[in-house]
Amino acid sequence: MPGAVDTTAGSPDRSAASTPQLGNTTGPFAVITLLFFFWGFITVMNDVLIPFLKGSFELSYFQAGLVQFAFFGAFFVISLIYFLVSSSSGDPINRFGYQKTIVLALVICAGGCALFSPAAANASYAFFLGALFLLATGVTILQIAANPYAAILGKPENASARLNLAQGFNSLGTTLAPIVGGLLLYKVFAPEGNVTLDAIKTPYLIYGGMFLLLAIVVGLSKLPRINEGGASGSGNAFQFPQLVLGMGAIFLYVGAEVAIGSYLINFMAHEDVMGWEEHVASIYLAYYWGGAMIGRLCGAIAMTQSDSPGKKPLYMAITAAGLVALIYVITAVRIEANVLEMDFLPFVELIPFVVMVALCLAAFAIGRGRPATILMIFSLSLIGLLVVAALFDGKVALWAALGIGLFNSIMWSNIFTLAIDDLGEHTSQGSSLLVMMIVGGAIFPPLMGLIADATDVRMAFLVPIVSYVYIAFYGWWSQRRISAKHAAA
């Protein structure tokens, strides 16, 4: 297990003269983590929404993949607009502030959720796609503001660890979403078990209310002002190679993660895997997204500069064990005839997942707390898991596919912080470019859908391998850049 963490990898460049006096950042950071939770929750609801709309409108895999195309397409459009504005007239966040930007984004999210009711009333798939685009517009603005804010909100040397911690709460949202969403759509609001479009109205009104409540909380909170009224940040961030290469890594990572999550339910329902019904398979999505939560929170420990590095293995083991237990309990929840029940999976069935958690912790140890090295190791592990998922049957394929979440865990945080390292006043502009690359989530699901329609949904799981080959390269390149910077210092 590592000693001191690399203190330059993945941290924004902030000179002593420009670094704001933040004071105690614990409270503000806690507020920011709520944002990560809620946008993780609402994003992964798409994985439950896809089979729901596919059945309701009798869609092909490709047509169902347009859900993610509409949602993640908004990331490209809105981020491109943000980049063009910041390049020509200065960074909007530096002018208006992180807090106001976040509140506006949350209100837009609420508006997108509210549109699900008229979409269902009109039984219009196109209307649903429009509602998703508006919802994703709000999430895009949240991402542009909250990711760099979380990275900057504290000591630079812990930026990657801090973003992993925030992403851990994002994963808590993604873990709960399939369970909550599946129960609401297929049980609670399905009249007498008859799943219709009307079942979708109330859940999304609830989600919209949650976003409005969070907007009030953020608006009333005292968040530190960072880079507001300072440098405009105008100019071109493309001068930084770590950002340009990082944009490609974000595009491929998000595309792979979203596509895999989008078709996991169909993958588990395949007769050669488990043959489960959709509402049963949706429960097991919690192991995919819960694995991401385990990896991110353990990654936060592994990549934090600490005075007691020898205790990190213990802290990580305790964290992982507690989160496995949490996922185990969450997936046991059932609602039958409006009665809450607990139906626990025999623990012996969970052994493959526990083994992969142990392998994930071992990978952190091999990476010695260096974000770029860990990125490379995890990418190579994902290539192996995808091959096993596509070529093997039954439980071997099942747990290989679900284990992908564990090794996807640190991808976003490590790529993001490596990409904005040394950007200085261009950090927010660079953030908008990275968020723009979330458009990968719009491209990959329809592409995987085409492969699934032409061959088999299992074979489609070979498509994301190209993503992880490139990300492994980016991790290797980033570590060389960091080493060269140290040598020159």
From TrEMBL:
Q: Where is this region: Disordered?
A: 1-21
Q: Please give one Gene Ontology molecular function term for this protein.
A: transmembrane transporter activity
Annotated Gene3D superfamilies: MFS general substrate transporter like domains
The UniProt keyword set, sorted, is:
Cell membrane, Membrane, Transmembrane, Transmembrane helix
Cellular-component GO terms for this entry? plasma membrane
**Transmembrane ranges?**
29-53, 65-85, 97-116, 123-146, 204-223, 243-265, 285-302, 314-335, 347-366, 373-392, 398-420, 432-451, 457-477
Q: Which domain of life is it from?
A: Bacteria
Coiled coil residues, start to end = none
- Could you tell me which InterPro entries the record lists for this protein? MFS, MFS_trans_sf, MFS_TsgA-like
The identity of this protein, by name, is: L-fucose-proton symporter
Q: Which organism is it from?
A: Posidoniimonas polymericola
